[in-house]
Amino acid sequence: MKTIRPTAILAYYDGVQVFEGCDSIGGHYVGMVIDTVGDYDRYLVTGARPERLRQFRSGALDLRTLLLESPGGEWYLTLTDSDPGESLTLAPQDKPLAEADFLPQEGYLLGDTPIDDLALYEARARGNVVFEFSAEPPETAAGHRIRTATLGSLLLQMQTIVKYAYQSALRDLAPQTRDTLDTTDGHLMDVVIPAAPGSYRVFLEAAKAPDMFGYGELARALRRLDEVFASTDNPDAARELLQPYRGHLAGAYIKLMRFLAEHDTGLWYAWADPTSANASHRGVTQAGAVELAELLSEVTNLTAESVTVSGIFQRFNRSAQDWRLYTEAGITIGKIADNGPAMDGLRVGGYYQFNCIEEIEIDFTGREKRTLYLQSIAGA
Predict the structure, then answer these.
(1) How far apart are the first and last CA of the chain?
(2) Which residues pair with 305 in a beta bridge?
(3) Which of 103, 161, 165, 252 has the highest CB neighbour count under 10 A?
(4) pTM for this prediction
(5) What kind and span of H or E run contains 37?
């Protein structure tokens, strides 16, 4: 008899619904619960090609198609009295699978909800806020791996979007409340588990240790991130749903969707603090990221962050199209936007208010380059 060892739970609801497994020589399998026999759950199991299994995990292939594509048309039944964990013995079947009554309906896709609460477990074990994310780029089909450039970019983009989510959440607080908080580094996270079993999963922990006020700062950012990711459930309304987060937060989200689309992967995340009853889950499939990237590709009004600076006008460099103001924070340098205002009439030493759009570019080290583009000028 052929035996396999379950390696990952792919769907769970009052028990394991779908799991992934492998045999002693590295062959890949997928199993789906079909009924209960006494105290045992019975599963339909087929072989699965690694690339097609990856596509199913990323939400790009439905389960029925994956099962019917079993190499050689072979399929099996197995019984287990608990969640698959121990080796399972497979009983081969003679009848063609397409003629059996066990197949799921067409269009059953693996949802964007992770299948366990490891984030909650780690949050309680570490006594801190924990954030995990997973991805399924093409290289995961060949094993438990991910390109270093892809992983580095994902880490950078996730930290960036959490940063802007944090800043967005803080703006909603009353000034007197905000002044009581220690917001220094409240958004920062450290990698604590570089790779966990299953999809390529990375665990991060709040870099800032909890204090007497609890776990609020990073949790505040992650709750805002959940709100932004709600648009993945309704792509057609994404523009409207993202309006409250316009600026750097919406811009970081759109860049993330483009990155996922370009790298042929979905992304899922979960987070919890030690007091959470359940982990919070969000994510987007590969197909969903492609759709959102296309729908938001021409959107510019969502990514613009309005910034007003006031100060003493120092100079305008016509050839470089840049300007300088001396403000309370020091020297501020910017450029003139396309179709921006003329600066010929400004008086050096005069006090002005510059209304600008701020754009940010982030290099591979995470360093930000901020550029202010002047939109209009007012006397102050």
Answers:
(1) 84
(2) 358
(3) 165
(4) 0.65
(5) strand 28-37
